[in-house]
Amino acid sequence: MFRALYSAASGMSAQQNNLDNIANNLANSSTAGFRRRRLQFQDLIYQNLVMPGAAATEQTTLVAGLQIGLGTRTAASEVVQLQGDLSATGNPLDLAIQGNGFFQVTLPTGDTAYTRSGEFHMDAQGNVVTADGNPLTPGITIPPGVTSITVGSDGTVSVTQAGQQAAQQVGSIQLALFPNAGGLNSVGGNLFLATTASGDPIAGTPGGSDGLGSIQQGFLEQSNVDVVEEFVQMILAQRSYEASSRVVQSADQMLQQLNNLSR
To answer: Which of 45, 48, 182, 232 is most buried by its number of CB atoms within 10 A?
Structure first.
């Protein structure tokens, strides 16, 4: 019964983490470029009362042992890299990736971060930056007095100056691809950092032969959170938590009956 109490408590703790993760997914259902996370669970160690394969006689072995599990735990939080819906904004600096890949931005520390959110702006010097002022990498600078900004599906950025008809290329956007995008480290601000699990980034031209997606100008990729699915997962988490709490109550009642036994 003591095992039952601790095993059920581990289940309640795991479902609490699950509910926290669902709450974060739902809270970011309207965040551009957000990638939902999915928790993965593992069973804990087992107490071997009878070891599987132990000798039953001199000639035979037990085909099954007697093992009592000691609960569960949350093992991992995987980033689900499904494509979000694209919404038209008409803003020339709103960019969406159709397919695989991440925009690259430079943090104040000098590190490179990665994002699926294409809400870009111009700072006072004409540099293309995120809402937090982190510049796009490689850097793109828009000269003053332009009448139009065009971003091709291959990342080519061209501008048209006032009084001119010919477009002038001012830079090219590169995307990054990871061997395991699910292993990226979320640091907030719609940003990811590379980790040992994600592997080293592979930068390239959008829409090329290396598997990178194409860029859609005037669109934003929305969150890939499926609100209906998250509500279903929330109900399942609530019911699992309730079931574990019932086990705690049952074990407590059994212990109470043992304490009340009289000779």
So the answer is: 182
